TrEMBL record:
Organism field: Paracandidimonas soli
Protein name: Uncharacterized protein (TIGR00156 family)
The keyword Coiled coil is annotated on this UniProt entry: no
Matching Pfam families: BOF
Residues spanning the signal sequence: 1-24
Presence of keyword Signal: yes
InterPro entries per UniProt: BOBF_sf (IPR036700), CarO-like (IPR005220)
Phylogenetic placement of the source organism: Bacteria, Pseudomonadati, Pseudomonadota, Betaproteobacteria, Burkholderiales
Source taxon at top rank: Bacteria
Alphabetically ordered keywords of this record: Signal
Amino acid sequence: MRHTVSTLTAAAVLALGASTLAFAQPSGYTGPNNAPKPAAQGSYSGPSTVPLMTVKQLLDTGRDDQAARLQGRLVSFDGDERYTFEDATGRITVEIDNEDFPAGQTISAEQTVELLGEFDKGLRKTEFEVDRVTVLP
């Protein structure tokens, strides 16, 4: 009986794994994909108590792990989810995960954006870790 339960458990795990694999698209495949897409996440668009700061203010007075908002432009992609952000007062490296960009929107270096995130001030690096990117009119 014990062997039968183990066999059934293994079969169930294999069946679950096979059904999960059916949704994954092979990395080299670029054709149509009928797999279910993850639900789009909404975001809050009302007022915020997180302070709007300039790059200079953040670099001069910012504390590690401080929440802040920045408004300016993403002027270059520097690789590995890192971008250079610029406002009228200076530049800072920002880290933006792909899912933190607005869904379905492409952002150019000329567009003004607002970044909501957290200042990461360390001994070897100083950057702004972005939680949300909003395109401004």
